[in-house]
Write a structure and sequence with these properties.
The structure is a homodimer. The first copy, chain A, contains 20 helices and 8 strands. In chain A, helix 5 crosses helix 9. By secondary structure, chain A is α+β, with helices and mostly antiparallel strands. The first copy, chain A, folds into 2 domains: 261 residues, 2-methylcitrate dehydratase PrpD (Orthogonal Bundle), CATH 1.10.4100.10; 127 residues, 60s Ribosomal Protein L30, Chain: A, CATH 3.30.1330.120. Chain A is globular, with a radius of gyration of 21 Å. In chain A, strands 6-5-7-8 form a 4-stranded mixed beta sheet. A two-stranded antiparallel ribbon of chain A has the order 1-2. A two-stranded antiparallel ribbon of chain A has the order 3-4. Chains A and B meet through helix 3, helix 4, helix 8, helix 9 and helix 10 of A and helix 3, helix 4, helix 8, helix 9 and helix 10 of B.
Chain lengths: 458, 458
């Protein structure tokens, strides 16, 4: 069997009963975290644009909920809109070593299809785990050279979504392999948009979730795909990576649960900023410094941070500011947390811009070598008094070694839900309760009641 | 201005009045040719699968016709299904130097949107020309190294469709550039499926047409894309080609009409087989040989022919047979033409398989150097009598230098329309008349009446 066949068979055969309890619980955590991220996308122009087109070009009703509007549509378009929404606020989860944001592609597709097919909470959990395990391994397989040009969450996300949806469609091993083929040959997403702060990031997740869903539906209907879309001589590895790592594709399947390695985002910014932000917070707390005391901050980073954040020197939008190392460190220094509210209220302020310009990035061999398996944060802080302090964080807040508690996740979800005015407090409470008891549902519920938003927030 | 900006501005500003009459006429020819190719896709399993999903996941009604079923839906799904249908029978057109099949991605998107917006025949023509001119130049820009791994019609087709739809949406230069950005970052399609004779070819065109359409609609709604998706350091050229040719992007815009360089397909097979098939027919006619006289045929080909056709040694399906050099030459030798009926009736016959096994491919430096600008056909035929003949064709039938007449195009269209039982003879006649008078329509018509197929062919 090829590695791709082994991986497809794993996804096709994974049952809820095989999944350790702590993995199930963590899946619930990640799902709740995703729900908050999706709600926070409400009102964002690119997200609303995608929703408008989904409702213009797709069905105006259906069995699946669009979280930001409480509208309903077909699974394809619910997946599309919820995926776009959940990748806007830079609050969705990230798996370190694959540099994949799994939640924003797996859950929109799986949740829509579970609703469309009336699957149980347990089946939804198993499908989501399949999506995470597949996506993470494919991301690790394609590696750093892929991520240099391609937005892994867009490309690999297509396969992750296909695996999750394929599980819910109860594809057999052969069909799942076809689904992988049809997903991989649709895989797309280039980083070029980042320099222009263009809206492609949400398009990538929208299309990854919906294209992966389409691939699995096609496979269920007998549509065939390439048998080795990952390692074949004209496959993804050959065309979209300079150095693949085939062993990663099947790395300890069923023993290593890669899902639990996924990090929650504490700051509402690009994950590449988090290690340095936390290292700076460490220095400020330890040395009892305030932002005004600081002359310069040198962040010691991995190459990908320079690649992704380097072009952003003078952020023009909130979204771009989330990719500005200096802005993120300025907000963290000032408010202890660079959250959605901190960005909205302060990212343009003179004070923040001044601090931003004190921050630089330098490539650090130790950090770069450890990346992407570990995201180490290191800063050197020079004070106006001429003192020099160094800070270091081995597990940024939200990483598996420093994860968020259920109370912290509930707080984050409530903050994000209210931030986008997507739901009332009691509705969010109700959704939280639904997620914590998801495995009890013989048929997955709606997370939010299908009501006109105007009656709640008009 | 960057090359991409110049190209986007050209697409945004192209008006019907600027297009020479012979280019308009040729566009009508290509559109009719596409219509026949689309009808021929009716009943093909992969095409019907895509239609089934389009109607399950998309709207069940709308302003746009699905040619193979006479159903109506939204422009997104009409584009998707018509694109899938028109790339099945291997009868759709090809532009040589870009190795792009423009019709199958440009016309489905443009026709659907022209119907949705009620645009005139002239606007539809101008939009289609924009799609061809953009797509061909982007294909030439990405070049041979791109085509080695990526199915150019899938990847570049996304931009071609976006340009055509953008024209119909009357995007300005800035919006068109955003549409290009959103199209390019969705561009996908890997050749890996070919080894397995999988169904991805139709998925590629379906997604190119619909994704390009989506990109243009998003741009019309203010959604932004990368400003240099083609030449940017993390754009298509950087990620998906080993050697680009930037000058090709803006090659004599408005002077060179690349559309008229497009070839019609005479044989119903992969275009890489056509030069050798015609060269063989040349030998057979000249020397008055019959297939039974032949011991071996050596075809002297370009490398891409070996790449695409080489893996197909024992075709298992009609579609795969269209990528078998030996099968195509066998059918051409036996019947003078490897058309849809010849494939259906004979591709599996012992006699055809025996001839097939007499055919080999060798790389020819002259042919390879001329490719892809020119597709030269050269064969060496050895007879059972021990004689050796060589055949050569500089312009395979259907090439601009040896194009099909309107009478031949009408005949091809009728053959393909009846082949798929997609329409009655008088309906096809009516559609042909509509295409020849397209520029007279203030609002584009339907090509086929919206009636239940059962009443015609039940």
């Amino acid at each position: 069997m090829t590695n791709t066949e082994i991986l497809a068979a794993f996804a096709a055969n994974l049952k809820y009963e095989q999944i350790p309890t702590e993995v199930v619980r963590r899946t619930e955590d990640l799902f709740l975290d995703w729900f908050g991220a999706a709600l926070a996308g409400r009102g964002a122009r690119p997200v609303e644009s995608i929703q408008k087109l989904a409702l213009d070009l797709g069905p105006q009703s259906g069995p699946c909920e669009i979280l930001i509007s409480r509208r309903s549509t077909s699974p394809l378009f619910a997946a599309m809109v919820n995926a776009a929404a959940s990748h806007f606020a830079e609050q969705d989860d990230l798996h370190n070593s694959s540099v994949l944001h799994p939640a924003t592609v797996v859950f929109p597709a799986a949740w829509a299809v579970a609703q469309a097919l009336g699957r149980s909470g347990k089946e939804f959990i198993a499908a989501s785990v399949a999506g995470y395990e597949v996506g993470i391994r494919v991301g690790e397989f394609l590696g750093r050279s892929h991520y240099k040009i391609f937005h892994t969450t867009g490309t690999v996300g297509t396969l992750a979504a296909a695996a999750a949806v394929g599980s819910l469609l109860r594809l057999d091993e052969v069909q799942m392999l076809h689904a992988f083929g049809s997903a991989g040959t649709q895989a797309a997403g280039l980083w070029e948009f980042l320099r222009d702060a263009a809206d492609s990031k949400q398009l990538h997740t929208a299309k990854a979730a919906s294209n992966g869903l389409l691939a699995a539906y096609l496979a269920a209907d007998g549509f065939t795909g390439a048998q080795d879309i990952l390692e074949g001589v004209k496959g993804m590895g050959a065309g979209m990576s300079a150095q693949t790592d085939p062993q990663k594709l099947v790395d300890r399947l069923g023993e290593r649960w890669a899902l639990v390695e996924t990090s929650f985002k504490f700051h509402a910014s690009c994950r590449h900023t988090h290690p340095a932000a936390d290292a700076l917070l460490d220095v400020l707390r330890r040395e009892k410094l305030s932002p005004g005391d600081i002359e310069t901050v040198v962040t010691h980073v991995h190459q990908a941070a320079i690649d992704v954040l380097g072009p952003v020197t003078d952020p023009k939008t909130i979204h771009q500011a989330k990719f500005s190392m200096g802005t993120v460190l300025a907000l963290a220094a000032e408010y202890g947390h660079a959250g959605v509210h901190e960005f909205d209220a302060h990212y343009r302020e003179q004070r923040i811009a001044q601090f931003r310009d004190k921050v630089s990035m330098v490539l650090d061999p130790e950090v770069d070598t450890a990346y992407p398996a570990r995201w180490i944060g290191k800063v050197t802080v020079q004070t106006k008094d001429g003192e020099t302090f160094t800070g270091r964080i081995d597990d940024p807040k939200g990483d598996p070694g420093n994860t968020l508690s259920r109370a912290e996740l509930e707080h984050k979800t409530m903050t994000l839900g209210l931030y986008g005015h997507a739901a009332a407090e009691e509705e969010i409470q109700h959704a939280i309760a639904s997620v914590w008891s998801l495995t009890d549902y013989p048929v997955v519920p709606r997370l939010l009641p299908e009501v006109s938003l105007e009656s709640h927030h008009g």
